[in-house]
Amino acid sequence: MADQLDLLWPVLIPITTAALAACFWYNIKVQRIISFIGLVLLFAASVKLTMTVVEQGVIAKQFGGWAPPFGISFVADPLAAALVAITGLLALTVGIFGFYDVRARHERAGFYPLFHGMITGVNGAFLTGDAFNLYVWFEVMLITSLGLLVISRSREQLDGTIKYGILNLFGTILFLIGLALLYGATGTLNMADLARVLPGMTMTPGLMTAAMLFLAAFAIKAGLFPLFFWLPASYHTATFAVGAIFAGLLTKVGVYATFRTFTLLFLIEGETLRYVFTFIAAMTMITGVFGAAVQWNIRRILSFHIISQIGYMLMGLAIATPIAWAGASFYIIHHIIVKANLFLLAGAIRAAGGSDDLRKTGGLLKSHPWLAVLFLIPALSLAGLPPLSGFWAKFLVIDASLRAEYYGLAAVALVVGVLTLFSMMKIWMEAFWKASPVKPSRRRHVPLAFIIPIAMLGAVTMTIGLFADPFVTYARNAAEVLVDPPLYIAPVFGAEAAAEAGALIAGEAVEAEMIDNGPVDGVEEEVR
Amino acid sequence: MTFLYAAAIAAYSGCGLYLMLSRHVVRIILGLALLTNGAIFLIFFSGRIGAMQPAVIPLGDKQLALDAANSLPQALALTAIVIGFALTAFAVALLVAAYKRLDTLDAREMTAAEDMGSPFLPPDGRPAEGRPAEGRPAEGRPAEEPAAAGRKSDEVKTNG
């Protein structure tokens, strides 16, 4: 029972923090203290959850004591638990970064309640085991992130927020339509229950439409080709702290939802679906990296690189072998840390050089040499140079693609890696190496509140890179659950139901048995 | 009957999508609201229409009546209505704020975010000699409108 509570804290702590901070709306100092305590507690709780999952495997909780398919379930498998832990780490580091970056007027506009509200949505989306509940968390995340994005109410932010908001709203509506079709066909929205029911059903047009609507909706959320345009149109307008947490987490929630849907509910099988996924993955990688090549604003470069890196994760999903999924899980974890760190560094470069536009800054190698070191860690990791975490991530994914004989995909991934290096070198040359185009009137200091989180995340990147083995093992465990849906079903429905489902999934290829029960009949049978 | 419902959903979604294709941001928001309603109807009807009995267990009985309505889609639809309402309200508030700052509701003229650090503009973010920048429509822009005249632009140019 106590273990089940572990599942609750990563959502309960931020939502309580948000509510408390909102209660002290006019007392900024109290809000700051509450917020920081909340972040520390959240980090502790998310680490605890991961440790519990490592010890006991997948854990689940039913809300309100309802029997499984009726109430809302929360399920933590290794992938979700790791993502929650990273969210806790990222929230804490960005919180520290925010000590300096978040201005008083942002605080008065409700920064802390919004920030913690967004973390609630992210953690909820990672942990929920119910498809409709996932929609609710998506919306929690969306509305708080809209508030965070527009927090300065500048012209750029208002414009960027409109684009971000409209396209993401459209995405959630597609998700909702997909949910309606799925419910109409199956009579359930509990993910574990869906994983039990769906393998026995034939792929009717309605189900196929639902699957493709999910893909489109999550593609908008994750920034996949060709639906990524909202991302580079808005992320560079946010404040630096907000930009970092967005870059690290929001698109990855979409990636996680894609993984959950297409490993648990609909399986990637058959030539067409495989072709669609590999095509999207390759195009996402290519368009992202070429989009970045032309940019001069650091955060615009990085925004496009989010897209190209998402392509690698989708590539892992598309190959659909256990090692590919392990590689992709590793990739997600590595990428969240590195990308958020780079967005924080954009803030530090601006503080040190006066601008985050590469054409207006320079000479930082001389004035802030340690900043150059801190930049090189995530930058080279993003490009995939050994011995940093990005090397192992790329190695695992590309190795899997070669083993599965996706040579074209592997070639694209390698070329995109080189082009990523080009972009990172561009930032390096322009911001650090070349002489500054403007004479600095005074020596600019980078506040300690910027250095600490950047160093922390850099240290994590180094740790993953130098001691990759435990992380790879963990990613393999995560992939095991993705490969074997009964492992996900068992904690929710019990071992028997999971074994039945396993037999059904295994037997599916042998006898394509049709279950012609209408959805309402199915529900009523379960009620009795 | 089912056909009627399907036609209603199609009408909602079709009108919503059509409005979303507009360049006028208010119309886009209205389109989103309609599309949300279409999705909500779809959820509602995905529980199948037919059973008219409320899903309440009579006193003394242990199970639902056979023809009880499926109450789950109603709960889902209610949730979606509340969320849709909140987001529409936020979107409208956002538009009011954007209209005050950007002075336009035409999506083509909303270029502030794109111009920020754009590689096609000089580094300071302002085009060399006033707008329009390269590749942007020259017409339809509130060119040198004297600010003193006030924003009399209740009729926002949408160019079709």
UniProtKB/TrEMBL annotation, chain A:
Membrane topology qualifier: Multi-pass membrane protein
Q: Name one GO biological process term.
A: ATP synthesis coupled electron transport
Q: Which UniProt keywords apply?
A: Cell membrane, Membrane, Transmembrane, Transmembrane helix
User: Domain named NADH:quinone oxidoreductase/Mrp antiporter transmembrane: which ranges?
Assistant: 130-420
Family to which the UniProt record says this protein belongs: Belongs to the CPA3 antiporters (TC 2.A.63) subunit D family.
- Subcellular location, record wording: Cell membrane; Membrane
Matching Pfam families = Proton_antipo_M
Q: Does the keyword Transmembrane helix apply?
A: yes
Instruction: Read off the lineage from the record.
Output: Bacteria, Pseudomonadati, Pseudomonadota, Alphaproteobacteria, Hyphomicrobiales
User: Which organism encodes this protein?
Assistant: Saliniramus fredricksonii
MF term (GO), any: NADH dehydrogenase (ubiquinone) activity
Entry protein name:
Multicomponent Na+:H+ antiporter subunit MnhD
Coarse class of the primary localization is membrane
Which ranges does the record mark as transmembrane?
A: 7-26, 33-59, 79-99, 111-128, 134-152, 164-186, 206-231, 238-259, 275-294, 306-325, 331-349, 370-392, 404-425, 446-468
Record bears the keyword Transmembrane = yes
Q: Which GO terms describe its cellular component?
A: plasma membrane
- The signal peptide, as residue positions, is none
TrEMBL record, chain B:
Entry keywords, A to Z: Cell membrane, Membrane, Transmembrane, Transmembrane helix
Organism superkingdom: Bacteria
Q: Which GO terms describe its cellular component?
A: plasma membrane
Q: Enumerate the subcellular locations listed in this protein's record, separating them with semicolons.
A: Cell membrane
Coiled-coil regions listed: none
User: What are the boundaries of the signal sequence?
Assistant: none
Q: Where is the composition biased (Basic and acidic residues)?
A: 126-144, 151-160
Q: Where would you say this protein principally sits, based on its record?
A: membrane
Specify the protein name.
Multicomponent Na+:H+ antiporter subunit C
Q: Which gene encodes it?
A: mnhC-2
